[in-house]
Amino acid sequence: MPVPSHRVGAYHVRMRLCFIGDSYVTGTGDETCQGWAGRLCALEGQAGHDLTLYNLGIRGQTSHDIALRWQGEALARLHGRNDGGIVLSFGANDAVADAAGQPRLALQDSLHATERILRVARTRWPTLMIGPPPVGQPGSDRRTRVLEQAMAALCSQAGVPFLSVWAPLLDSAAWCGGIAQGDGLHPGGAGYAVLARLVQGWPAWRDLMAAPP
Amino acid sequence: MPVPSHRVGAYHVRMRLCFIGDSYVTGTGDETCQGWAGRLCALEGQAGHDLTLYNLGIRGQTSHDIALRWQGEALARLHGRNDGGIVLSFGANDAVADAAGQPRLALQDSLHATERILRVARTRWPTLMIGPPPVGQPGSDRRTRVLEQAMAALCSQAGVPFLSVWAPLLDSAAWCGGIAQGDGLHPGGAGYAVLARLVQGWPAWRDLMAAPP
Questions:
Q1: Residue pLDDT, tens place only, A1-31
Q2: Which residues contact B166 (CB under 8 A, 6 or more apart)?
Q3: What is the structure's pLDDT at B95?
Q4: Which label site among A62, A131, B136, B157 has the fewest CB atoms less than 10 Å from its CB?
Q5: What pLDDT, on the 0 to 100 scale, is given for residue A2?
């Protein structure tokens, strides 16, 4: 994984990060419009890091949709720079049932799309992946959980750090209660704050925020 | 200008808005990572409107850079929907001097790029334009001011509402002081909050947030 070379001061990182995914990356339902990505970058700003946040979540998109457009959008923001990074998070829409009761994307198609994204991203930029969250729909959540575990295996093979947020979000009243009190699919700001803290404390994220030795 | 047809309740608008521009749209320097676009959508959320914010600001981009990529990014987010909208704001980077002391983009090239964007955007989506702000650099600010006034005329011809924020931001201690205390080009959150309030109170924006009669 390329190490960002543009650092500010002894322990402060300056990076431009593309957060690529679906409505959970957009932060749908967050009353501050920050989402977990904005909350995470704001927390790191308080710690002295200078992060430019490019929020490239698009509501409703599956892994396949994202595979088609992520690279052009990342290149428009990061091409020619040495301070870029990629944070991926998607999958929940793949598992949603269509009118015929079938998932919008079959498991193998989800994994194929994810593998294509990982393969390109990791050779160009420091890349991290956050697993899809539970969204309070038993049928699709069951499929998303299977996908999430397969994504973890795929990331392990590709050498991309993967953070599962499934268990801690299922245990989080702010996440699950926020969904129940919200639109039934998305939490409010308190739920996204929990997710931001999970990423903030993740060793692979902390490595990204650490000055080189 | 097409009127968004997807409304929630009597006076609440549900829209997906692409904010397209440069680092001032990104919200560079805002310690909350909201920028004016996030602050504006959060304010409207408090008023009951359900806005999805797609922040498509890219640091350093000129009008020409934006003309090359805005449409693909907007289509990825709004294609096939009837609740989309476009908010444009750029120009400050066009006026920055290159190594030879010339602006990165000549006035006519800026206006040509802007006209291309306006022509396509206004036929597909409700479209608004916010003028570029002063950024505390006398030389480039003088050129940006000329460009800003020419953009206003262009928008008037194209039937796209244009908001000049030049005078109120020059008068704003939060904007100008924030730039001086920040990186010398971008304000902090208090400055972006001033800009958000200017847009919030703009009659053309209020029209977008108004239910149809």
A1: 454 555 555 568 999 999 999 999 999 999 9
A2: B131, B133, B134, B145, B148
A3: 94
A4: B157
A5: 52
Closest alpha carbon within chain A to B33: A38
Asked if residues B54 and B18 have their Cβ atoms less than 8 Å apart, the reply is yes
Number of inter-chain CB pairs under 8 A, A vs B:
62
Give me the residues of B, 59-78, that contact A with CB < 8 A: 59, 69, 72-73, 76-77
Query: Does A165 lie at the interface with B, CB-CB under 8 angstroms?
Result: no
Give the number of other Cβ atoms within 10 Å of residue B151's Cβ: 28
- Tens of pLDDT, residue by residue over B15-57, are 999 999 999 999 999 999 999 999 999 999 999 999 999 999 9
Structural contact between residues B163 and B198, judged by C-beta atoms closer than 8 angstroms: yes
Q: With beta carbons less than 8 A apart as the criterion, state whether B130 and B165 touch.
A: yes
CATH 3.30.479.30 correct for A14-210: no
Residue B124 and residue A50: Cα distance in Å, rounded? Answer: 37
Whether residue A38 and residue B42 make contact (CB cut-off 8 A), yes or no, is: no
Predicted ipTM > 0.85: yes
The residue of chain A nearest to residue B49, with distances taken between CA atoms, is A31
CB contact under 8 A, A28 and B52: yes
**Is the alpha carbon torsion for A155, A188, A16, A63 positive or negative?**
positive
For the record, the structure tokens of B203 come out as 């009659």
Structure-token pair, residue A129: 């992946």
Interior angle at CA B187, CA B182 and CA B192, nearest 5:
155
Give A-chain residues touching B32 at CB under 8 angstroms: 32, 34, 38, 42
Q: DSSP readout, A3-43?
A: PP--EETTTEEEEEEEEEESHHHHTTT-TTS-HHHHHHHHH
- Residue A54 contacts B, CB cutoff 8 Å: yes
CB contacts of A28 in chain B (<8 Å) are 52
Could you give the 3-state DSSP secondary structure of residue A196? Answer: helix
